[in-house]
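Our consortium's second objective concerns turning raw sequence data into structural hypotheses that experimental partners can test. To show how far this objective has progressed, the report includes one record in full. It was chosen at random from the queue rather than selected for favorable results. The single chain below, 137 residues long, was entered without modification.
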Amino acid sequence: MSENLRPNIFPALTYTDAAAAIEWLGDALGFEPQSVHRGDDGTVEHAELRHGAGLIMLGQNRDSGWLGARELDPGSSPMSVYVVVDDPDALHERAVAAGAEVIYGLTDQPYGSREFGVRDLEGNAWSFGTYDPYAAG
């Protein structure tokens, strides 16, 4: 894989309270806001959060549009977000201390990754681990 390639896939999520999600994702999982764009009413229209070299996008769920225009039901979604981290043990401790719902605890996977899974404050599934698809290639 060429070292000059940059990620070109960015998970985008909607939340019923995007501002609370930004705060929780930072406190519990270490995400840092890169940009937050608010509408005239103060709601988060679009935000970009970084975690290492990765980036996710999120916004306020609205009946009028962004990412599907329907009532959220994250429990029925087959999608989850995976984030490569250097120290999953420390992040797991941080997430648990912040009240994250643990889907699966710290686990050493047969493919060499140490990882765990949690749900965020609106039920989206997140996995964090040491497996790096770019390095494995």
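The partners drew two points from this record. Strands lie at 12-15, 32-38, 44-51, 54-60, 80-84, 101-108, 114-119, 125-129. The domain at 12-63+79-136 is CATH 3.10.180.10 (2,3-Dihydroxybiphenyl 1,2-Dioxygenase; domain 1). Both points have been shared with the crystallography group to help prioritize constructs.
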